[in-house]
Amino acid sequence: MTEVVAALIWDKNKFMICQRPAHKARGLMWEFVGGKVEAGESGARALVRECREELGITVNVGSVFAEATHVYPDITVHLTLFNATIANGVPRMLEHNDIKWITIDEIPNYEFCPADRDILEKLSRLNNLQA
Questions:
Q1: Which end of the chain offers a freer environment for a tag, N or C, measured as fewer CB atoms within 10 Å?
Q2: Structure pTM?
Q3: Tens digit of each residue's pLDDT (9 = 90 or more) over 19-51
Q4: What pairing do the DSSP bridges indicate for beta strands 58-71 and 76-88?
């Protein structure tokens, strides 16, 4: 199983999503920024590295928002989504095809990676509880 980390980054009532490059697995699908945890790395350290590599930003990593395990045809991932804030920098598309800030209500407008779907449902349920 591959350990993967991702960041739930908010700007007021919108959160950041990134579109995967066309040439990668699950190309042009949307996801939270993040990536694989390397050997000897903590989840938080991996997330800081991935955000710097993919967006050119430094993040402060907070608590775990959710976890999910998903079996793809080519890989099984255990995804940990951390709450995070931008400490330094402005997100740039260093790897992704696009970056968007969306509201929870806009989730159905985007095709997300299957591993993210349970987490997106949790976000939607929380939004419904607050409405």
A1: C
A2: 0.93
A3: 999 998 898 999 999 999 999 999 999 999 999
A4: antiparallel
The amino acid occupying position 43 is G
- Structural Rg of the chain based on CA atoms: 14
- Give the pair of three-digit tokens for residue 17: 């999503």
One DSSP character per residue, the chain reads -EEEEEEEEEETTEEEEEEPPTTSTTTT-EE-SEEEPPTT--HHHHHHHHHHHHHS-EEEEEEEEEEEEEE-SS-EEEEEEEEEEEEES----SS-SEEEEE-GGGGGGS-B-GGGHHHHHHHHHHHHHH-
Residue type, 109: N
Residue 65 to residue 8: CA distance in whole angstroms? 8
